[in-house]
Amino acid sequence: MRILCFWCGLAAAMLCGLLDPVWGYVAVFLLSLLQLALLGGPGASVFLLVHYTTLLTYFSLAPAIQIAQDLSFWEAGVIGTVAHTQALMLLLLYMAGVEAARFGVVDPPLRHAAGTAPAPGVAHPLLLLGLLGAAFAVLLARADLNFVARGLPGEIENAPLDFIVYSTLPKMVVLMCFVALAIHALRQRTATAWCLAALALAAAAIAANPVNTARQILLIGLLPLLIHGLGRSRRWTLAFVVFAAIAGLGPVFNLLSRGSMWGESLATFPYSPDFDAMYVVAGVLERAPAPDLGFGRYLLSAFSFVLPRDLKLFPDFDPLGWPAILGNFSQSNLSLAQFATVFFDFGLPGPLVFGFLLSSLFRRIDRAIDTHGPVSRGYLAALVLLAAYVPFMRGPILGWGPFAASGLIAALLVGALCTGFGPARRALAPRPAAHA
């Protein structure tokens, strides 16, 4: 039933988009709502739940209202209807690829913990608290990177490596320690566990301050806890929280951290530049000349932004660096949705195949999500990857890589401490068979 509704809805969205891109995006909005309703069962894919929530937030009503109101961003002017229609078709191809990978997949039923015994917690929570303290000390060592509002006039530009080592990675370690200790407290429900989780929460709140921290850290660092708590049981609550956090708090954080420093006025969703993803895609399609196929070089160039500029892979294959784009957009730090990047590489099959491959990967990650399973490296890494999909879908060029990589490193490190020592590891070991 869900699959049939999707393909019928996709066909309707394509027909509406060919008539008017505004109605095409409205159809995507309705299709996303319908899919979220049908995914409400507790055994269904967590990835698809996050996927359709992200579509609902960034790729439905926001571009529809922007096109209907002739809004423009970054002094690029109004984009033509033809370009908006082309951009919509790329999005629909990507959505088709994501669902094509689900053919023949039966969503597993909700798994419950066996018996009445609490699910295993972490082995030594004090070790996690010690790791949290060490990571927080690293943040204090470079307070200028972590506790001063970004965008201050005269700030000293730091090397990207310094920012990762002294800011991004330790913040992710602090947040992942809080996630692990919070899961431990929810499972053990002891006074000691709750106190440790409260200490971790205070440290995480200070480390992930909205004045300085990019929203990707908040998403990748705190969304895993919501996925753990709500992804299998209260799925509508998870979808609503993700939507409200991005659509409501995102522009507010942007205003606090950047707009207030420069006197900018920032409208709320859906007029905020935070929701310019499809505007940028359409702008690139309209303003840039038709490029030769890159056969993967555009995508490699997009993901190599984590490297210093002089080490960037294939700099000539960066669509946002083309003179036609730089001459039309006043904002140089734009992000391009990945399904548009693979279009430059492989043409129309690119978004379809990319969505298929990505959805196939997340099918495997979905199987690792068991909220009653051990807090392990694999489990925390799966939670981080699911959470990282939200900013990834928005556009990986805009600072996504360092945050996602740091989140994975933090998950592996914290997960090793969760299960590598003490009673939790012994609790998971199989019991020896009884002899007569």
Q: How are the elements arranged and paired?
A:
Layout: H1 2-19, H2 21-38, H3 46-58, H4 61-68, H5 81-100, H6 125-141, H7 143-146, H8 160-188, H9 191-207, H10 215-230, H11 235-262, H12 277-287, H13 297-303, H14 323-326, H15 338-346, H16 349-367, H17 377-394, H18 400-419, H19 422-428
Number of strands: 0
Order of helices and strands: HHHHHHHHHHHHHHHHHHH
Q: What portion of residues belong to β-strands?
A: under 5%
Uncertain residue segments: 422-436
Please give the count of helices.
19
Q: What is the typical, i.e. mean, pLDDT?
A: 80
Radius of gyration: 22 Å
The helix content, as a percent range, equals: 55-70%
Based on CA inertia axes, which overall geometry fits? globular
- What profile does the largest beta sheet have? none
Report how far the terminal alpha carbons are from each other: 53 Å
The helix-and-strand class reads: mainly alpha
Feature tags:
436 residues; mainly alpha; 19 helices; 0% strand
Give the structure's gist in a few sentences.
Helices cover 65% and strands 0% of the residues. It is an all-alpha fold and 436 residues long. The C terminus is likely disordered.
Task: Walk me through this protein's architecture.
It is a single chain. By secondary structure, this protein is an all-alpha fold. It is built from 19 helices and no strands. α5 packs parallel to α16 and α6 runs parallel beside α9. The termini are far apart.
